[in-house]
Write a structure and sequence with these properties.
Elements: E1 5-11, H1 15-27, E2 35-39, H2 44-53, E3 59-61, H3 68-81, E4 86-90, E5 95-96, H4 98-110, E6 114-123, E7 126-132, E8 135-138, E9 144-147, E10 173-177, H5 178-184, H6 196-206, E11 210-221, H7 228-244, H8 249-269, H9 276-290
Parallel strand pairs: 1-2, 1-4, 2-3, 6-11
Antiparallel strand pairs: 4-10, 5-11, 6-7, 6-10, 8-9
Helix pairs in contact: 1-2, 7-8, 7-9, 8-9
Protein name: Glycosyltransferase family 2 protein
Keywords: Glycosyltransferase, Transferase
Family: Belongs to the glycosyltransferase 2 family.
Length: 294
Amino acid sequence: MIEDLLIIILNYNSAKESVALYTDLLTQGAGKSKILVVDNNSTKDDQAHLLKHIATSQLRFLDVNKGYASGNRVGIEFAIQNSIPYILLLNPDIRISTESIKALLYTIKSTKDVAVIGPRICYRNNTETIYSDGGLIYLNQGCYTTHRHFKKHIKEVPASKMLLDADYVNGSVFMTRTEVFKEIGFMRDDFFLYFEETEWCMRANKKGYKLGILTEALAYHESSTKGYLYYYYMTRNRLLLSRLYSDYYKVTRKVVWDIIKKELQKSIKQRRIPSCVLRARIKGFIAGNLKKLN
């Protein structure tokens, strides 16, 4: 049994993955009452699959999909109302052992100045290749983000003590204290998808908190094909983030526009219709400059 922790799985049309993760955690002894699955207004068939395999007491169904931050907020508020001091946000595609969860929990409990902690994330289909040892953001390069040790073999970067120089912890496996939300607020609902955890981690860091990556704890994620929504929200929210940190807005706008301009010129030269990716980036660029921030 894992004490003092609520595990929150946010589902959106990924019921098979969510059920597999939920079942895997139960099999490892996580305890049913320690897991809450929040459904972000999935299809009826997807919701039916959840209801078939997960106890209704551990399910929350939302009428509207308002994105990552809003969906997870339902679980976070449940933890706060029930005086649960720690929460772990998990994406449905993640696989993680309870031993790794316990290691993360022990570390954050014993390191009071750490607001959020995450594990080393590798690939489910290539378990010895690193996906992320923490996120990095280069504000002066147009809010460019990347993952530390991305695609490196685990033997190249042996697990060590906790890393404390990440700029953000990946939102797919995100353990934090509920008290931090009381101090700095929740993640931004208006981002909808991508960069929410980045902005929240930057806010926490500004308040003097540290961000930890425990490379001895492992999680595994399933890589997926990136479509229109990915490029739209990544472009839009990169600009929204830069507007919150206004010193970097002009350079971010220029960097993003240069990427779009290069792709557009290539399309014109080759006399082809702009690709799905290019159309997404153009619309994301417009929205990122014009959207009203709360």
